[in-house]
Structures are given as structure tokens and as C-alpha cells.
Amino acid sequence: MNPADTPTLPRLAAYTTLRLGGPARRFVAATTSEDLVEAVRAADAVAEPVLLLGGGSNLVVGDAGFDGTLVRIATTGWTREGGVVQVAAGQNWDDFVAALVEAGLGGLECLSGIPGSVGAYGCEVAESLVELDLYDRVTGEVRTLKADELGFAYRTSILKGTDTGVVLTVRFEVREDGLSAPIRYAELARTLGVEIGERVPAAEAREAVLGLRRGKGMVLDPADHDTWSAGSFFTNPIIPAVDVEATLARIGDPKTPQYPADGGVKLSAAWLIERAGFRKGHAGPGGRVSLSTKHTLALTNRGDATTEDLLALAREVRDGVYARFGVSLHPEPLLINCMI
Ligand SMILES: Cc1cc2nc3c(=O)[nH]c(=O)nc-3n(C[C@H](O)[C@H](O)[C@H](O)COP(=O)(O)OP(=O)(O)OC[C@H]3O[C@@H](n4cnc5c(N)ncnc54)[C@H](O)[C@@H]3O)c2cc1C
Predict the structure, then answer these.
(1) For atom 32 of ligand 1, which residue has the closest CA?
(2) What's the 250 CA to ligand 1 centre distance in angstroms?
């Protein structure tokens, strides 16, 4: 089957959780891995720019849109062989996690409620991921990459920020005893009434995670503008070891949250934003955008915003934090045909 070409030029706003973004020149929906490879191969053959689209939950697309082919990854479904589950890249992530929990399979439940698709890799899947199949746009071949070849680190992997690899299918290891992975976060452990490192029935962990995430506006809800976002807009900044002392002195608060990180110390972007004077709900141009009323790190569309409105708010926050503490914040979502 060939990918289905649609006759109209859809606005990207229809496909992003921010509901922002102008039109794409061409739109292709691929419902099988073969279609997906073919769509990308065909565009590459004529040097047509390609934007791969999963759930659109990690994308900020400019008001002018995308001058190329939008390839919507609409492959779905999963199969299981013993403790390994193979899933299509376009499969909705949270529906997949819910189905695993329902089937009594543990391991991914703590990543409940994250929007988007399996293949996009915003989330911390490194521990459960076994391998994935990838279409390599440089060599034109499909190959399998093992987890340790993917260079996972905080909010990144070798695939993030490059568009040379198209993820087709992913294989995860699951726990057949129906228990969760060891609970890692203090807030989740407190909610569940267990110690860090303990395991609980996967369904209990999922419910607790969903509850905590809803409280922060981090579970998609079309009726709630606090969830019209791309999740956390800024990554937590990592301060190189040589600059840590001076940075903490500038911040001047002994209670500054800080965590050891590769080559330095990781600070909390949300905490810095609040300390720089931006409160939850802080509004941007015309009130059309604002920080989420539940979480300072999410920039949200209040209904009739443009991408330029959102970027203006992002600049205000970034510049405010820099002016106050000398710390640079960097956007976490991918910015397509726009910049802050
Ligand atoms: C309310 C909310 C809460 C969120 N919470 C979290 C969170 O807790 N943790 C977290 O990590 N993220 C979070 N996010 C961000 C986002 O959900 C994740 O980054 C998610 O993995 C993105 O998936 P997607 O399918 O929507 O990607 P898209 O936004 O569609 O695409 C993102 C990038 O991945 C590329 N891509 C997509 N599919 C493929 C593929 N098959 N092969 C190669 N490249 C591909 C795209 O081209 C693009 O560059 C949140 C977002 C929202 C809106």
C-alpha cells in the first residue's frame, strides 16, 4: 500500500499538542513501516525536506509552517514474545503502557501519562529498551541498534536533534511478575507509601504516576489549557564544575535544589524560573500564552495564540533567569522553522 497523500495543506497546529504551527507543503501518513521508509526515501530522492511527526508533543513549529513533506508516523500495534515486547514507532505511548499494565506486564508504568509516540524518545526508556529498528537515511538501509549504542543521557540520545534515523519498531524488556520497576522518585515513593527501590503492582504505580502528573497539568486533557503545551519547555541546566561555586553564590540561597550531573551540577529550571520572579500562570503577549497555572516549566497556549506569542514568552523567561542568575536555559522541544 502506498502512503496516503492528502489533497489539502493541513496546518501543523492540528497535529501538535501546543496547537501551534503553520501549514506543511505536503502531507503523507504512513501506516506501515514499509510505507514509512518509502515516504522518507521518496522525499530524500528529490531532496525534499522531511519533518517526521509522531504525537506532536515535543514540537514547536513556526507560524510560517514547514516548507517540505510532513510524514506522519501512523504505525500502531505491539506483539510479545516472553519478556520482550515489540512495538511500532507510531504507537501512542500511553495507550501502549496502559495495555502492558492491563496485561500484567511491569517495567514501563512509571512512564505513564507521557504524550506522544513510542518512536520519538523524549522519555527515559533507557532501562527497559532492548533494541530498535531504524531506517538510516544516509545509507538507505534498515538496521538494528542495541540500547547501549543509543547514547542515552538526560533528555537525549544519539537520535535526538538529528533526523538521519527513522525509528520503525522498538523492543522493550517487560517484567512478567506484574510488578513495577523499582520506584526511583521520592515523590512517587511517598505517594505509594513505600521506600525508594521497592516494587509495587504495576497498576498501582501507574495510577499514582497519573495522579501526580495530572496535578502538574502533565497529562493531556483537551479541556485544560494548562496541558496545551510541549511539556517542560526548558531542560534543567547543567552547570560545569568550574562555574558551580560562582553560580551558587549569585543565586545566594543555601537551599538551591541541585543534583550531581555529568561534569558538574544540575539545577532545577522550574525553581530558577520561580526565583527569577515568574509565577505559575505568568502571562505572555495579550494573555494568549502563559506559564501553566500548575507548573512553571510548561509554556501553554491559552486558546488563540501564535507561535510567535509563545516564543516571546520563552524569551522573556530565558532572559529573566539569565539576568538574575547568569544561568542559560535551553528549550527542550524541537523548534522547527522558528527560534528563541
Ligand atoms: C503535557 C506533556 C507532558 C510531557 N511530559 C514529558 C515527560 O514527562 N517526559 C518526557 O521525556 N517528555 C515529556 N513530554 C514531551 C513529549 O511528550 C515527549 O518528548 C514525547 O516522547 C514526544 O513524542 P512525539 O511522538 O509527540 O514526538 P513529536 O513531537 O511528534 O516529534 C518529536 C521529534 O521526534 C522526531 N520523531 C518522531 N517520531 C520519530 C521516529 N519514529 N523516528 C525518528 N524521529 C522521530 C520528530 O521528527 C521530532 O524531531 C511531555 C509533553 C507534553 C505535551
Answers:
(1) 58
(2) 34
**In angstroms, what CA-CA distances link 290 with 178, 282, 306, 317?**
40, 5, 12, 11
End-to-end CA separation in angstroms for the chain = 40
Which residue is catalytic, options 41, 80, 155, 302? 155
Is 128 a catalytic site residue? no
17-62 tens-digit pLDDT: 999 999 999 999 999 999 999 999 999 999 999 999 999 999 999 9
Q: What is the mean pLDDT of residues 71-79?
A: 96
Please, what sign has the CA dihedral across residues 201, 117, 30, 170?
A: negative
206 neighbors 297 (Cβ within 8 angstroms): no
DSSP label of 237: P
- In one-letter notation, the amino acid at residue 224 is D
Residue 87's closest CA among 179, 172, 202, 156? 172
Catalytic: which of 112, 117, 128, 232?
232
Reported as half-sphere exposure (CB side, CA atoms, 13 A), residue 123 has a value of 21
3-state helix, strand, coil in the chain (%, to 5): 30, 25, 45
Measured CA to CA, the distance from residue 290 to residue 284 in angstroms comes to 5
C-alpha gyration radius of the chain: 20
Rounded to whole angstroms, the Cα distance separating 238 from 130 reads 28
In this structure, the residues whose C-beta lies within 6 A of any atom of ligand 1 are 17, 51-59, 73, 89, 114-117, 119-123, 163, 165-167, 218, 220, 227, 229-231, 334
Catalytic residue among 19, 112, 128, 332: 332
Question: 121 pLDDT exceeds 70?
Answer: no
Is 232 catalytic? The answer is yes
Contacts of 267 (CB under 8 A, 6+ apart): 236, 237, 238, 239, 247, 256, 257, 258, 327
pTM of the model: 0.92
